[in-house]
Amino acid sequence: MPRLSTRVRSLKPSATLAIAAKAKALTRQGVPVVNFSLGEPDFETPAPARRAAERAIEAGQTHYAPTIGDPETRAVVAEKLVRENGLRGVTGDHVAISSGAKHSLYLVLHSLLDPRDDAGDVLLPTPSWVSYAPISELAGGRVVELPTTPESDFKISPAQLRAAITPRSRVLMLNTPSNPCGTMYTPDELRALAAVVAEAARTVAPELIIVVDEIYEKIVFGGIEHLSIGSIPEVAERTVTINGLSKAFAMTGWRVGYAACPGEFGLALMRGIDALQGQMTSCIPAFILPAIRAALKECGAETEAMREAFARRARLIYDLASGIPGLRCPRPTGAFYIFPDVSAFFGKTSPGGAAITDSLSFGAALLNEAHVAVVPGVEFGSCGGDHVRVSFACSEETIKAGMGAIARFTASLR
């Protein structure tokens, strides 16, 4: 009988998708579900971006474009990175546009890693977004988790990073602000990590590259300035910055991501991505390219309005979560998630008779009995098992209803 590849058979089923499917099934049955599982803004794409795409379609811009984006759009992305992020020396030639930040990450890691490579370790602070580890492993990397705790706001320390680096280390993966944790590194913390990488590159790990996912860079509200680690001179030319338009511009369905890296290595990396993407998806839809330019150049007011709304929601959900006995989490400072510890409820039983033994059973019982969907923390790395991710990319009314239901559910456990 034919069989699937080892590559596919080794992928773990996603508990996130299982929760989402169950939530949708309940909704179809007429059950009102509060869905805290979605990492998707509930806002409309800003009008300037929509209008730009419409005009491009009407003008006949519906044919193939250059694989990693046309020169004009890549130049606009580069200008944004220089102006807003301080990435010196980045030009359009140092940028590749792909089908979402996830695709950009896939392309970057497949361009950096080789199966059976002696220098193929991916240092991954956890809890981390669900796709970092599988994509790293698909590319031939070996994931080395750097576990964190709520007490550190889920951030690694320079000493922890220094101890983890070996001659095998090839990629340090960073995500700030963080999905799922809702926290972010301060500029001084990033400078300290950059100093460790620069020192290691001179000594034990000369091929070590920082890959930083900044998809939530504009959604900050905790008084911490966002700093791009790629702007720090000592690691600038060994930092690949990944970003996109999904979160800050409410353009998840447009599938726009990009990767950038300055210097000669950056040029070589973009050529590699161009070749690899050319054998995969080729270009993104040509009429989306003008929308990218419009979003980056004309939609600052809209993104700021969304940021302010997320800031209000962050204060609301943190206050409500803090009022639930047994629930604890760091104050959110970026992105649109909280990541509370629910281990105080392990060993209890729900009114419906479900035994709560871990975050998976907690999430399942919460959905089945209280009709609130959250994502079990086990999805985000080994140290996330005591937690659940709660997204506040929804209205304040929804937040109040959902957190009220969680409070009543946890109080009912015996």
Task: Please outline what is shown here.
Helices cover 40% and strands 13% of the residues. The chain is α/β, with parallel strands linked by helices and 414 residues long.
Structure description:
It is a single chain. The protein is an alpha/beta fold. It folds into two domains: 6-44 and 301-412, Aspartate Aminotransferase, domain 1 (Alpha-Beta Complex), CATH 3.90.1150.10; 47-299, Type I PLP-dependent aspartate aminotransferase-like (Major domain) (Aspartate Aminotransferase, domain 2), CATH 3.40.640.10. Helix content is 40%, strand content 13%. The protein has 13 helices and 14 strands. It has helices at residues 6-9, 15-28, 47-58, 71-85, 101-112, 132-138, 158-164, 187-202, 263-278, 289-298, 300-322, 359-370, 396-412; strands at 34-35, 95-98, 121-126, 142-147, 169-175, 209-213, 239-244, 257-260, 337-338, 348-349, 355-356, 372-373, 375-376, 388-391. Helix 6 (132-138) links the parallel strand 3 (121-126) and strand 4. Helix 2 (15-28) packs parallel to helix 12 (359-370). The longest helix has 23 residues, at 300-322.
